[in-house]
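Re: [ENG-882] Designed sequences occasionally contain unexpected residues at chain ends

Forwarding the minimal case from QA. Structure tokens:
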């Protein structure tokens, strides 16, 4: 296969201004899951004709080999691969720089020409991100390194956070909500009665940093998930105010299930409007209804975004296809008949390597009763303290469980 084109060139060549589609997949835990994902990637390439396809890089660099393998599979089978690369816990013989250089060289040798430059999240079981000694401290370092070592060989994209990076979001004390600016009100979120917001002074730092990443050589931006089109429109307008002229691609998390939706929005402190929250609560016990609503909501959001001039609709597929197909069918007025091509029989196998099936503090149900997640270890093993059992001296039993 010849080398991939750069994504920025494909976007720039779009003369009529219509929105493209792109897809994102993560590395599954098992080899059987990987094999099934290959089939899904092949089907979705044929059925949706994405402009490009992202492959994520696991927290803590946990999927480095597999992410590269999947990105190369995507390239070799007709996708324009956009490989995520983080500078978290990446070392080669103790050298984090050599590890990143090696990953980039392997990708380049295999024909990949597009990289998403990211700092990365902490590894599973860790709560704080730490830079490897002698390595990179942020995504900006990675963008600069790519341009220094590889020149213009790669197209480079970076993450943008319309509501602020989760680490830059503040939990407000009771009564502080009344002091929020109009801009803060437009990007705030509320969970369990607590309002969270990236304050104006922190948002300015976020935008200044994003400008640095673009000035260092990033070609375009892919946003963190959001569920309010107004948030995207404001973010694009702010990018232009900051002198950021590159394309801003909206990242769209497909609503597939109630637990995943609530967990991810709370973890990322994502803004959820009252109407959306109420609707999800009303449907939470009906799996099929949640997916159907995911299609309906996703369609409306995508229409708003295309009207706003979004260059690409980038779907975080969660390694599934039903909701993506439903949305695209609706956007094409049902002419594509993609719903008849859905195959999610392998959904249970599409769990991420090292992904936490619950987070610390979550209430979880087990065969032994209900308990509280006290710790999630690197392996994905959870330490659960049971709520209903009390032993001598007030001790509560713990279990060490992993979801397979």
């Amino acid at each position: 296969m010849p080398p991939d084109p750069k994504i920025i060139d494909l976007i720039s060549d779009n003369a009529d201004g219509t929105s493209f589609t792109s897809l994102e997949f993560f590395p599954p835990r098992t080899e059987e899951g990987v094999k099934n994902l290959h089939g899904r990637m092949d089907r979705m390439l044929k059925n949706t004709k994405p402009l490009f396809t992202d492959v994520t890089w696991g927290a803590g660099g946990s999927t480095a080999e597999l992410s590269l393998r999947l990105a190369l599979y995507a390239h070799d089978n007709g996708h324009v691969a956009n490989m995520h690369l983080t500078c978290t816990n990446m070392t080669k013989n103790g050298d984090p720089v050599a590890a990143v250089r090696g990953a980039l060289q392997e990708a380049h040798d295999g024909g990949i020409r597009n990289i998403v430059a990211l700092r990365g999240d902490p590894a599973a079981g860790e709560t704080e991100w730490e830079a490897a000694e002698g390595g990179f401290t942020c995504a900006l370092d990675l963008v600069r390194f790519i341009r220094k070592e590889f020149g213009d060989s790669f197209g480079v994209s970076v993450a943008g956070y319309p509501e602020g990076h989760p680490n830059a979001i503040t939990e407000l004390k009771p009564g502080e909500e009344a002091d929020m600016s109009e801009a803060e009100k437009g990007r705030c979120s509320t969970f369990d009665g607590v309002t969270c917001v990236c304050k104006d002074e922190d948002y300015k730092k976020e935008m200044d940093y994003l400008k640095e990443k673009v000035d260092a050589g990033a070609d375009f931006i892919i946003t963190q998930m959001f569920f309010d089109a107004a948030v995207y429109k404001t973010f694009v307008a702010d990018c232009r105010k900051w002198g950021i002229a590159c394309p801003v691609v909206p990242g769209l998390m497909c609503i597939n299930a109630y637990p995943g939706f609530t967990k991810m929005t709370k973890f990322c402190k994502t803004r959820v409007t009252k109407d959306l929250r109420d609707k999800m609560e009303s449907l939470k016990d009906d799996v099929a209804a949640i997916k159907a609503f995911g299609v309906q909501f996703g369609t409306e959001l995508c229409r708003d975004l295309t009207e706003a001039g979004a260059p690409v609709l980038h779907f975080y597929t969660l390694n599934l296809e039903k909701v993506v197909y439903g949305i695209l069918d609706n956007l094409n007025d049902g002419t594509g008949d993609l719903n008849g091509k859905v195959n999610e029989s392998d959904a249970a196998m599409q769990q991420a390597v090292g992904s936490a099936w619950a987070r610390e503090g979550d209430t979880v149900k087990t065969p032994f009763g209900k308990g509280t997640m006290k710790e999630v270890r690197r392996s994905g093993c959870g330490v659960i303290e049971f709520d209903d059992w009390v032993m001598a001296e007030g001790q509560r039993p713990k279990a060490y469980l992993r979801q397979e």
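QA comment: On inspection the terminal residues look reasonable. The mean pLDDT is 87. Proposing we downgrade this to a documentation issue.
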